Amino acid sequence: MILLFFQFLMLGSVMAQPAAVKKASQSVFTLTTFGADGSIIGSTHGVFVGQNGEAIAMWHPFEGAQKAVVVDAKGKSHEVDAMLGVSELYDICQFRIKDKEGVALPLVTSSAPASAVYMVDYDLKKPVIKRITPQSSEKFMSQNNYYLFNDVDVSNTDLGSPIVNEQGQLLGIMQRHKNGGQAFSADARLISSFSLSGLSLNDNSLKATGIRTALPNNEEQATLMLMLAGQQADSARYEAYVDEYLQKFPTSTEGYKAQAGCYMAMRQLAKANDVYTTEVKRVTKKDEAYYDYAQAVYRAAAFKIDTTYTAWNFQRAMELAQEAERVNPLPIYKHLQAQIVYVQGDYQKALAMFTELQKTDLGKNGEVFYEAAQCKTQLKAPQAEITQLLDAAVNAQSGTGAAPYVLARAQYYDNIGEYRTAFKDYLAYDTLMNYNASPEFYYAKFKCEQKIRQYQLALNDIAHAIVLNRMEPTYYAEMAGLQLQLKQLNEAVRTCAMGLQLTQEYPDLFIIMGIAQCELKGTENIQAGLANLQKAQALGDPRAADLIAKYKK
Q1: Where are the alpha helices (DSSP H) in 328-454?
Q2: What are the angstrom distances between the C-alpha of 223 and each of 86, 213, 252, 273?
Q3: How far apart are CA 248 and CA 215, in angstroms?
């Protein structure tokens, strides 16, 4: 009789619960996370806490995972879409499922610690609900409660299960450290401290999982995250960000521009056109929408992205740019029209338009002066008129903003044979770029320095170009050629040898190496040199035959 009495009491502790506690079982789910190869990383429980599929669970099963799936109380499967926040310290995270379903469990409203709680397990037919007493509790982050439990009351199959009070409000989830230890529960209200920004994409904690971070709710921060996501190599993930951005901010231009950009990258201009047509209809700032549309059409026509899609041409780009100006007469819209006129070959008309734009706020930047100089060049205007505009482009702004125009002026002087003047601008540009310009720049500077016989500087710059792009054989050939000219024969041979490690199909390298070896004299060197000259001849180099005849004597 006594045994039966105690069994009855134990049954009561499991079965007799308030209706609100029983209802909490509708919010519980199982969670399984998977690695890139499909293997299971972790398996636990969790609970829905929001009306749009927001949920919480322990964090550590997500570490290293590339995918996660939850199965709700009705047995329906949902893929995890994005992470909303994480606390590594308290091993808890918030995320959202893709179809945004799930019965939300309300968070506790009182900061007073509970003396007894209910642990709600997961079961499709009859969830087990146990009333347990915390071993102890303490405060963290001022108002939040941290509960410790007697391990006798908690099994590993209970982990992730929600802990609720008599009102069915969520206190937390049952937790245990991934390496073992005493069971605990951190206050579920901790998730209210989670906050996403544009830079959350680079957060080390969130980067520990392969599941993407959700976009922030703030439009400016979401735009920043969208931009950062676009710089990453994962195109499928970027498309997910674009889709989410369009859902969150349907009247903003950025999402449509990003989506259209994806289609343009795939040369699907008809789909990009549909996106821009939708943008014009939906966004608040119509002028920006027309401008985005016009720019895309202009670029597609200028770079001949898909000549079979004839609906996108310069005339269409002009119509759209004019429509943007009609809605809001900003100089930037007239500027695009001038660029379209220029690319169509009407340089005189374009010059007049760029000149007029120099009187607007655009005149605070060098671009319209540079473009006017380009028009003058095409019209074969006197050099003094062209350099005057290039000087104006450089002087329109200070610091690094002037760098593109300093380089343009250097290239102009280089092209007309004023190499020493060009050299000064090359030096100025290098300084503005903090000596971190492109390999193409250092190659151009090298060529200019050769012409003014600044050979040591030229060698330094072509070496810099090689460091920046070790896979370009031309740089090795150019460096070796100058070394040969300066009678640095051994150095020329070594440089050619490095270049030939990249390719055996570059005759200049064999020619220069062959000459350098023959000039080093000695039977062994001459034989090696002739062998390299013969390789150049086999590649069809017309110089090789005369050189072979010369060094065979």
Answers
A1: 331-343, 347-357, 367-378, 383-395, 403-415, 419-432, 439-451
A2: 22, 14, 10, 22
A3: 9
Q: Please write the tens of the pLDDT for every residue from 385-418.
A: 999 999 999 999 999 999 999 999 999 999 999 9
pTM summary value:
0.82
**Nearest C-alpha neighbor of 160 from the set 125, 190, 124, 120:** 120
| CA dihedral angle for residue 467, residue 468, residue 471, residue 476, rounded to 10 degrees | -50
Q: What are phi and psi of 537, to 5 degrees?
A: -65, -40
Q: Which amino acid is at 490?
A: N
What pLDDT sits at residue 9?
40
Q: In this model, does residue 7 exceed pLDDT 90?
A: no
Distance CA 211, CA 198 (A): 16
Q: Cβ neighbours of residue 519 under 8 Å, at least 6 residues apart?
A: 484, 487, 489, 529
234 pLDDT band, cuts 50/70/90, is confident
Cα-based distances in Å from 151 to 159, 183, 195, 287: 12, 6, 33, 64
Q: Residue 270: helix, strand or coil by DSSP? A: helix
Sort 163 into a burial class: Cβ within 10 Å, 0-12 / 13-18 / 19+: buried
SS3 string of 76-101? Answer: CEEEEEEEEEEECCCCEEEEEECCCC
Can you tell me the distance from the alpha carbon of 168 to that of 109, in angstroms, rounded to the nearest whole number?
11
Q: Return the closest-CA partner of residue 252 out of 229, 219, 212.
A: 219
For 188, the 3-state DSSP assignment is: helix
Strand partners, 78: 70
The Cβ-side half-sphere exposure at 250, using a 13 Å CA radius, reads: 4
- Which residue(s) pair with 93 in the sheet? 57, 86
Q: Who contacts 262 (Cβ-Cβ below 8 Å, separation ≥6)?
A: 235, 238, 239, 242
Q: Please give the residue that has the higher pLDDT: either 124 or 30.
A: 30
Could you give the dihedral angle defined by the CA atoms of residues 533, 538, 544 and 550, in that order, rounded to the nearest 10 degrees?
60
Question: Is the confidence at residue 6, as pLDDT, over 70?
Answer: no
Average confidence score pLDDT of the chain: 94
Cα(459)–Cα(457) distance, rounded to whole angstroms? Answer: 5
